Amino acid sequence: MCLIVFDWQPDAAPHGERALLTLAANRDEFFRRDAEPMHWWTDAPGVLAGRDLTGGGTWLGVSRDGRFAALTNYRSPAELRADAPTRGTLVSAFLAGERMAPLDYLTRVAEQGHRYNGFNLLCGDFTRRELGWYGNRADTPPALLEAGVHGLSNSLLNTPWPKLVAQREALADLIHADEQPALDVLIDTLRDPRIANDDVLPSTGISIERERVLSAAFIETPEYGTRSTTALRVAPTSRGLALEIKERSDDDGSHRIVRPGHFERAFDFVIERSA
After folding, report:
1. Using one digit for the tens of pLDDT, what is the confidence trace for 146-173?
2. Burial bucket for residue 54 (CB in 10 Å: 0-12, 13-18, 19+)
3. How far is CA 159 from the centre of its chain?
4. Residue 23 burial by CB count (10 A; 0-12/13-18/19+): exposed, middle or buried?
5. Known InterPro entries for this protein (predicted)?
6. Among 216, 221, 219, CA closest to 196
7. Residue-range domains of the chain with CATH
8. 24 and 56 Cβ atoms separated by less than 8 Å
9. C-alpha to C-alpha distance for 270 and 266, rounded to whole angstroms
10. In which residue ranges of the chain is pLDDT below 50?
11. How much is the pLDDT for 17?
12. Close Cβ partners of 1 (under 8 Å, ≥ 6 residues apart)
């Protein structure tokens, strides 16, 4: 997962128009790396997520009881270690494991953060109205996020890379025009192939040609690109917290890659109340 923008409003009123969370995310990955699209997991029936078939984890998912987690890699090619544990299991462990408060889980992860290649991890519990972030290349400890529009790419939270700034502003504009924009609109907005100008590109240890290609929100190269786009909304209703999620991907479920992806899956449910 390489680009996430989201509007977090923990004080959203039960009968208001503003959602608790509005999120759009792109997963960028090598096409040769097999993955399952979003589905309910048979070995963890309460988890709804895609699945990386190489590492066994996932990049973004939710649970029936209101947990959420997502991950982006931190781009620092000089620091990559082939023997580091897979980062995707940090997401699946939060969703499928013993229920913990987001900050407690992130603090536990931080104790072992040095073992992993660079990452950013978002963990949330909608019933608690808590959403936290930890980056293992940051100088700060895990923290709960304040209300507002935020973004993650392949650097730390809200680092102003061109595509993050553009998509964060686009999300803010969408919510200003319609406090609960359609999930299809969120997906379409994030699938933007425009390349940033050279004078605003970050310098992350890769070639300028590669920096250009990766500066697009929607990435397309012969061997690597945006494999899926996910939109998520959680909104308070009279029935409780209603969750809607939609994924548009390049995989119809058979690992047959079709570019650009147009296979869609959508799910909605009311989050189970805590006992």
Report:
1. 999 999 999 999 999 999 999 999 999 9
2. middle
3. 16
4. buried
5. TANGO2
6. 216
7. 3-270 (3.60.60.10)
8. no
9. 14
10. none
11. 83
12. 25, 26, 27, 28, 59, 60, 70, 71, 72, 73
Cα gap 248→147, rounded to integer Å: 27
Q: Which two tokens stand for residue 81?
A: 């270690």
Contact (CB, 8 A) for 96 and 40: no
**pLDDT reported for residue 262:** 83
- The alpha carbon dihedral of 97, 102, 104, 109 has a sign of positive
pLDDT in the model for residue 124: 98
State the DSSP string of the chain: --EEEEEE-TT--TTSSS-SEEEEEEEEEETTS-EEEEEE-SSSTTEEEEEETTTS--SEEEETTSEEEEEEE---GGG--TTSPPSTHHHHHHHHSS---HHHHHHHHHHTGGGSSSEEEEEEETTTTEEEEEETTSSS--EEPPSEEEEESSSSTT---HHHHHHHHHHHHHHHH-SS--HHHHHHHH---PPPPGGG----SS-HHHHHHHTSSS-B-SSEEEEEEEEEEEEEETTEEEEEEEEEESB-SSS-B-SS--EEEEEEEEPPPP-
Report which of 195, 104, 97 is spatially closest to residue 141, judged by C-alpha positions.
104
Tokens encoding 229 = 């786009």
Quick: pLDDT tens for 173-222.
999 999 999 999 999 999 999 999 999 999 999 999 999 999 999 999 98
Q: Are 114 and 243 in contact (CB under 8 A)?
A: no
Q: Which tokens go with 233?
A: 């909304």
Q: Counting beta carbons within 10 angstroms of the beta carbon of residue 183, is it exposed (0 to 12), middle (13 to 18) or buried (19 or more)? A: buried
